[in-house]
């Protein structure tokens, strides 16, 4: 009788252990399924957002550039500066609407051309002189890059930087070496502290794009010594 009791007790514990084991397995499987469903839902939401963004951008380019051309011709009668700004802006917009090559990239010198256009626009924009020193490698046509990354980083200099101090000019360097490594470096006085959140969002988007194309082959660093803001992007093209 005692042996039967202990046998029954052992069987009970063994059965309880097996039931608990299978229950844990079931719960883990359900958890994995929930994670998969959550990931799928997030992917569906991202896809829907991408589709929506794509549809919002379906402006007829011919209509857009015909309108800009009309505004350009009209502005010439009143202000050469305004007309030139419109022309430069249309060049940047034309570039942003261009299709990239099948690998998703464009020639580096095309991006640099738009950086020059953006700098020229901002020289027209400000009533005060802006102080920005630019250093570029001489030949950039041999390399390719995903579009609008460097242009966006350059835009941030004007959006968030103070370029009106002659004693502390902003600096933009874009250098390539013989191994195909690109270094983009910018340094400028800070304009205000309340722009940090918007700047962080823009940089987050850049990091997402860089991770998609260059994961493990780039380094993006930010340094903020006192009143200055420094950004360094090192990229294997």
UniProtKB/TrEMBL annotation:
Residue ranges annotated for the Signal transduction histidine kinase internal region domain, each copy included: 53-128
Residue ranges the record marks as coiled coil: 24-60
Superkingdom, taxonomy of origin: Bacteria
Regions crossing the membrane: none
A Pfam family matched in the record: His_kinase
Gene Ontology CC terms: membrane
GO function terms (MF aspect): phosphorelay sensor kinase activity
Family matches, as InterPro entries: Bact_2-comp_sensor_kinase, Sig_transdc_His_kin_internal
Keywords: Coiled coil, Kinase, Transferase
Statement: the UniProt record of this protein carries the keyword Transferase: yes
Keyword Kinase: yes
Protein's name in the database: Histidine kinase
